[in-house]
Amino acid sequence: MSKGLFITGTGTDVGKTFVSGLIVDALRRDGASAAYYKAAMSGNQRRPDGTLIPGDALYVKKVSGLDQPLEEMCPYVYEHAVSPHLAAQLEGGPVCLDRVLQGYQAVCRRYDYITVEGSGGILCPLRFDGEELWLTDVIRACGLGCLLVADAGLGAINAVGLTASYLDRQGIPLKGIIFNRFQPGNRMHEDNVKLCEHLTGVRAAALVRDGDTHLNIPAERLRSLYE
User: Fold this and answer.
1) Angle made by CA atoms 61, 65, 68, in degrees to the nearest 5
2) Longest dimension (CA), the chain
3) Measuring CA to CA, which residue among 182, 202, 19, 201 is closest to residue 192?
4) 209 near 15, Cβ under 8 Å?
5) pLDDT (tens digit, 9 = 90+) per residue, 116-129?
6) pLDDT band at 1 (very low <50, low <70, confident <90, very high)
7) What secondary structure letter does DSSP report for 46?
8) Strands of 174-180's sheet, edge to edge?
9) Average of pLDDT values for 39-44?
């Protein structure tokens, strides 16, 4: 039976895709049948034939060595580098939860560990055109817990605390926190980790430094985050 984990972030550009690549790579190195999925991607480039390249999926595929086809990794791909709800208003093709779930379930039938990356922060709207769809709707529909990616630097305490509080109010389990761009010996970074763990009651799953090519987390601990 497949297991999934949703990767959310404290905001845009905190390194969710980078960390997702490390996670999928770590699972594959441990011999797991691993896959990647993302409901909607914005800010993508076009191929010469005009079709859009799902950039985040392509990155994860390359760094992790996945043989998973790109076309099954993301059902909604947009060109404009804005929230998916606005990209769909500009380009057409609004996100439909049924299609997202069908794609996710198809991946679950083929792989054992599914890493599902969110768009932006946890409050990112996927659709807002008279019909509303939010990331939390996808998370609950898939029955997933969250792994939170945060920048280890200034602002981490506030961003992690608010995100964790929102997840709690939404009834979504926070399984762990990964601090990205962590600098060993940096007093602020180390203090941020300690205070975020205190605020949330959730352990740091890993501390990721710039340029890391492997995730420093025991395989059993990583697998335990999935449900």
Assistant:
1) 55
2) 51
3) 182
4) no
5) 999 999 999 999 99
6) confident
7) B
8) 34-38, 113-117, 3-9, 146-151, 174-180, 204-207
9) 97
Mean pLDDT within 211-225: 96
Question: Is 3 a catalytic site residue?
Answer: no
Phi, then psi, of 146 in degrees rounded to 5: -115, 145
Measuring CA to CA, how many Å separate 4 from each of 163, 197, 211? 20, 23, 26
**List 16, 38, 61, 175, catalytic entry:** 38
pLDDT of residue 113: 98
What is the C-alpha separation between 93 and 211, in angstroms, rounded? 36
Supply the pLDDT for residue 99: 98
Q: What is the assigned CATH class of domain 16-146+163-172?
A: alpha beta
Please state, in angstroms and rounded to a whole number, the distance separating the CA atoms of residues 47 and 38. 20
pLDDT higher than threshold 90 for residue 140: yes
Burial of residue 211 (number of CB atoms within 10 Å: 0-12, 13-18, 19+): exposed
pTM to 2 decimals? 0.96
Long-range pairs of 13-19 with CB within 8 A, sequence gap ≥ 24: 14/149, 14/150, 14/151, 14/180, 15/149, 15/151, 15/180, 15/181, 15/208, 16/117, 16/118, 16/149, 17/56, 17/59, 17/60, 17/117, 18/59, 18/180, 18/208, 19/149, 19/178, 19/180, 19/208, 19/215
Q: Where are the domains of the chain?
A: 16-146+163-172
Euclidean distance between CA atoms 121 and 163, whole angstroms: 8
Residue with tokens 């034939």: 49
Q: Is 153 in contact with 189 (CB distance < 8 Å)?
A: yes
